[in-house]
Amino acid sequence: MRIFHFHLLLGTALALLASAQDAAPKDRNEINSGAKPGGMMADSPITFPVAAQFPADLRARSYPAEKDYFIMDDNRRSLAQIRQILAKMPKGEFAPLTNKREHAKQSLQRLTSGGELHILMLGDSIINDTARSGWITLLRDHYPAAKIRGTIYVRGGGNCGHFQAEERVRKHILPLRPDLVIIGGISQRDIASIQEVIRQIRAGLPDCEFLLTTGVFGTADPRSAEAMAKARHSGTGLYGAELQNLAEAERCAYLDMTTPWVQYIQSSGLHPHAFYRDAVHANEYGEQILAKILLRWWTMPES
Q: In this structure, how many other beta carbons lie within 10 angstroms of the beta carbon of residue 147?
């Protein structure tokens, strides 16, 4: 029965064409290339890619950007479609999140008081996947009085080393005038470049708040604590500790997304690829794990 249930889930849940996912350019990280797919491929029941079960039902508005970079609104899934996905996705759970929101109080106050909040998500194709989950749509549903706008600025394999250069902050981020910038993904290469982007944005937008998040997905096997700790983007290893230290030094909010994502996948009892669309990226169900984490963080009671 368990084997039958597993394959039934895989048959209905694992599906996705990259074009249907409205994705950013292919991942540019060498470690995530098809030639180095990681240990999960050894026992994977999936042959990638597979067709999308829930192609995004809305078309996001795009804005002018340089080659290989994308700026667009977050609106790519309706609330009705998100609820369809949530109803069918494999069940899992994660432990209560650590409250690290003291430096996002202004953003939280805008949500709870019915103010305006413009969220900018900055990073790579994983950040694109996170935005496509529709988590900001779910946030709007939770805080209906607030006027929440979401924008993403991404590059395949994009990191703050890219965004700090060639006046991209001045040319592309400051004109958007975000109230909150979320920096994350699996492609960050160093803490110093993240710090530089924060400081460049604050020079032009001194009241802007920041949420620094650790990475999810990629080829590191979430069933292995050792593999996750070694992953360059992981919240369970050195990067997570360094990013949290930076958040404290620069007065930014911090969220370890790695730990709850690992917990959800492990608790599902399924192979991790039940939540992947290829060897690196999330499918619709994987995206909703990210949405659950972010929504929980923004809506949990104060500790």
A: 12
Please state the domain extents for the chain. Answer: 2-299
CA gap 46, 90 in Å, rounded: 16
Q: What is the CA radius of gyration of the chain?
A: 18
* The pairing of beta strand 69-73 with beta strand 116-123: unpaired
Contacts of 157 (CB under 8 A, 6+ apart): 27, 28, 29, 124, 125, 187
The tens digit of pLDDT for each residue in 183-209 reads: 999 999 999 999 999 999 999 999 999
Q: Is the sign of the CA dihedral 271, 218, 24, 144 positive or negative?
A: positive
CA count, 13 A, side-chain hemisphere, 284:
30
For the stretch 67-100, pLDDT in tens is: 999 999 999 999 999 999 999 999 999 999 988 8
Residue type, 149: R
- Could you tell me the CATH superfamily of domain 2-299? SGNH hydrolase (3.40.50.1110)
Say how many C-beta atoms besides its own lie within 10 A of residue 184's C-beta: 26
What is d(CA 262, CA 258) in angstroms, rounded to the nearest whole number? 6
Residue 293 has pLDDT above 50, yes or no: yes
Phi, psi torsion values for 155, nearest 5 degrees? -140, 140
Contact between 129 and 287 under an 8 Å Cβ cutoff? The reply is: yes
DSSP states of 132-157: HTTHHHHHHHHSTTSEEEEEEEEETT
Handedness of CA 34, 40, 41, 45 (dihedral sign): negative
